[in-house]
Amino acid sequence: MKTKVLKKSEIKRTWYVVDAGDKVLGRFASQIARILIGKHKPTYTPHLDCGDFVIVVNADKFRVTGKKLTDKIYYHHSFYPGGLKKVHLGLMLKRFPERVIYHAVSGMLPKNKLRSPRLKRLKLYTTPDHPHASQSPTPITV
């Protein structure tokens, strides 16, 4: 038996809609990362970006477990001396709830050249409707 290797011209992308309402953040993000990578397909090829598009609706209605609202901290640096900035998860949820899912999914993707094209296929919305109806996305539960 020969193993078929997927070519770049043979990649077919589908659109999926996922509702984040009342889902645990980490488990939810790992399933989204799996779809973005393309590991759910039988034609998965590690060196090609063969994943699908994911639309996340109700991106502000997920939940976290434990004391993460007060203990989890997001860091970024301005590259100036003393420029380390910290934001707690609770404050990030009030300001930018989509960024929390974005950071979680981003951390679960491999750190290589395919990471940013995969993240571009992730669409996040805090409302239950989205502007991608013309792509006729398939609703899935993760």
What does this entry look like structurally?
The protein is an alpha/beta fold and 142 residues long. It has a domain at 14-64 and 97-140: Ribosomal Protein L13p, Chain: A (Alpha-Beta Complex). 30% of the residues lie in helices and 18% in strands. It contains five helices and six strands. The chain has helices spanning 25-37, 68-71, 89-95, 97-108, 115-120, and strands at residues 15-19, 53-57, 73-77, 84-88, 122-124, 138-140. A four-stranded parallel beta sheet has the order 5-2-1-6. Strands 3-4 form a two-stranded antiparallel ribbon. A hairpin with a 6-residue loop joins β3 and β4 (84-88). The two termini are 33 Å apart. The model has no long low-confidence stretch (mean pLDDT 95).
Fraction of residues in helix: 25-40%
Number of helices: 5
CA radius of gyration: 17 Å
Distance between the termini: 33 Å
Characterize the largest beta sheet: strand count, sense, and whether it forms a barrel.
4 strands, parallel
The proportion of residues in beta strands is 15-25%
CATH class of the domain at 14-64 and 97-140: Alpha Beta
- Following the backbone from N to C, one meets helices and strands in this order, namely EHEHEEHHHEE
Give the strand line-up of the largest sheet.
5-2-1-6
Determine the structural class based on helices, strands and strand pairing. alpha/beta
The CATH homologous superfamily name of the domain at 14-64 and 97-140 equals: Ribosomal protein L13
Question: Poorly predicted ranges (pLDDT <50, ≥5 residues)?
Answer: none
CATH topology of the domain at 14-64 and 97-140: Ribosomal Protein L13p, Chain: A
What's the pLDDT, averaged over the residues? 95
CATH second-level architecture of the domain at 14-64 and 97-140: Alpha-Beta Complex
- Overall shape: globular
**Care to count the β-strands?**
6
